[in-house]
Amino acid sequence: MDAIILQILNGLDKGSAYALIALGLTLIFGTLGVVNFAHGALFMIGAFCAVTLNKILTISYITIDETRTDFLGNPLKVENTYIERWFGPEIGSAIIDWSVPLAILFSIPIMVAIGFIMERGLIKHFYRRDHADQILVTFGLAIVLQEIIKYFYGANPIPTPAPEVFRGSFDFGMLLGFDPNVIIYPYWRLVYFSFSALIIGAVFAFLQFTTFGMVVRAGMADRETVGLLGINIDRRFTIMFGIAAAVAGMAGVMYAPINSPNYHMGMDFLVLSFVVVVVGGMGSLPGAVLAGFLLGILESFASMNEVKTLLPGIDQIIIYLVAIIILLTRPRGLMGRKGVMEE
């Protein structure tokens, strides 16, 4: 039972990332009808927003401490950060320690701007083109963004620590009545799951309960009729592209302490997240979230040593195997709508 609970927790962790990326993919496809293969690159850029803010906050200068000497007897050179100089040692060090959560605020305007530029500068020219053309151009854009990140940040992963208070592990089993140290789970992974649930809930609430969201949902169902009512639906869809980019960016920011950012992390998640979108049903927001968590949990169970002993390599193909089974039995996915990507 303890192993099952641990794998469910691991699955929710993976599923959170899949669901957030798939949610953004589905928002873009449902509003603009564009299959955006550059969405994983937005997740990667979000993670590097956390890296960038951490580097900015730790910019330092050298001072000479006459009261201390090095091993040669010379006055000791001490490295100090500007943030600690401006705000004091305690507040400055706290700001540096909490750089990842602060990077959420740092990333939102950057990701929205990137989303607007992508949509207005490139993707709008492919609205009426075949989905194959959309996939090719957005996949090429993803490779370009990936190489830009590689040029400026290098090819090696960059560790980005979580705040110190969340660096330990939580004895989850104690809450459920198990013996101590049976189910140990990192605090930050629990934070990431909670954050994902909050963002997903906020997106659904925005679409469901705001006038802007209602118009967008109406436009997703019948774009032409909404346009005939005098509503500039294109402008609203552009804003939704920016929101989807911001969601992907925030997901990447919070994932940075879990998996050190590297230039290919967007591609690692993109293919799996696109499978999640297809399994959930193209254009279905609830389907994307449901499939994200479902496939995350299945992948987690498939990675257990007992399972891999019986079925070697199953952890590498389980998501695709489940996708094949679901699409054979439900061609539109779990919650897909009739007419979406159908001739």
Index terms:
mainly alpha; ABC transporter involved in vitamin B12 uptake, BtuC; 343 residues; 7% strand; 4 strands; two-stranded antiparallel ribbon
- Poorly predicted ranges (pLDDT <50, ≥5 residues)? none
Specify the overall morphology.
Answer: globular
Give the averaged pLDDT, no decimals: 84
Rg, rounded, reads 23 Å
The ordered string of helix (H) and strand (E) elements is HHEEHHHHEHEHHHHHHHH
Order of neighbouring strands in the sheet with most strands: 1-2
- End-to-end span in angstroms? 47 Å
The helix content, as a percent range, equals 55-70%
- What fraction of the residues are assigned to beta strands by DSSP? 5-15%
How many independent structural domains?
Answer: 1
- The CATH class name reads Mainly Alpha
Summarize the structure in words:
It comes from Sedimentitalea nanhaiensis. It is found in: Cell membrane. Pfam families: BPD_transp_2. Belongs to the binding-protein-dependent transport system permease family. LivHM subfamily. This is Amino acid/amide ABC transporter membrane protein 1, HAAT family. This protein is mainly α. It has a single domain, classed as ABC transporter involved in vitamin B12 uptake, BtuC (Orthogonal Bundle). It is 68% helix and 7% strand. The protein contains 15 helices and four strands. It has helices spanning 2-32, 39-57, 82-87, 89-97, 99-121, 131-153, 172-175, 187-209, 211-221, 223-228, 233-255, 265-280, 285-302, 305-310, 314-329; strands spanning 60-69, 75-81, 169-171, 184-186. The strands form two sheets. A two-stranded antiparallel ribbon has the order 1-2. Strands 3-4 form a two-stranded antiparallel sheet. Strand 1 (60-69) and strand 2 (75-81) form a beta hairpin. Helix 1 (2-32) runs parallel beside helix 8 (187-209) and helix 13 (285-302) runs antiparallel to helix 15 (314-329). It is globular. The N and C termini lie far apart (47 Å). The model has no long low-confidence stretch (mean pLDDT 84).
